[in-house]
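During the second half of the funding period, the structural biology subgroup turned its attention to how the target accommodates small molecules. The most pressing case was protoporphyrin IX containing FE, which had performed well in the primary screen but for which no bound structure existed. We therefore specified the complex as follows and requested a full 3D prediction, including the ligand pose.
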Amino acid sequence: MLLEAHKIFANLSWILLIVILISRPLAEIVGNKILFRFLRYRKRMGIACGLAAISHVVFFLIGSGLLGVYFSDPMFWSPNTFFGWGSLALVAMFFPLLTSNNFSLRYFGRHWKKIQRLAYLVFVATAVHVAMVKNDWLTVVAPTTVWLLLWVWAEIKRVKKNSANNIEKYC
Ligand code: HEM
């Protein structure tokens, strides 16, 4: 039962992570008002994503009777195992999760975004984790490529917009 539930939380967390990361560049590219409004919910989705990931890990560890050895067994921290990549994702997720609120946004100011960028590391580590579990790289190469392309496209659009604004300002 617990071992079945951990998979549901695992997939929920992975899907939320993809939606969170893809929504910003997509909104910037499409320039759609509804999509921009959707971005407001990203903090809440980040919390749901983190809680789902924690539930996945806790349910798995309790269900398999490995909770007691999680921190001491090197298998859970080795980059050669899918556990190690999952643990890296979990640790990296901790900081954006704790600061995913308006109080932290005010407290950390311009550094807040830097903390939230750890979500990229969470994404890559989870992608490797899932690919190793499923022994199928396509399931993770597809969302990672889509995200990367959208991110580069949005960055190019932003740079072009900034340079057009600068030209207008100085002409
Ligand atoms: C941010 C952290 C993590 C995320 C988002 C995540 C996500 C996922 C996903 C999407 C799967 C594939 C589920 C499926 O087969 O349908 C999975 C599998 C698995 N994960 Fe994680 N994981 C994370 C961390 C961890 C950690 C730290 C552990 C170990 C303590 C772990 C243990 C497992 C196990 C054992 C499976 C294999 C399930 C199976 O097919 O039997 N995960 N994880």
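Two results from this model are relevant to the next phase. The mean pLDDT is 91. The two ends are 67 Å apart (CA to CA).
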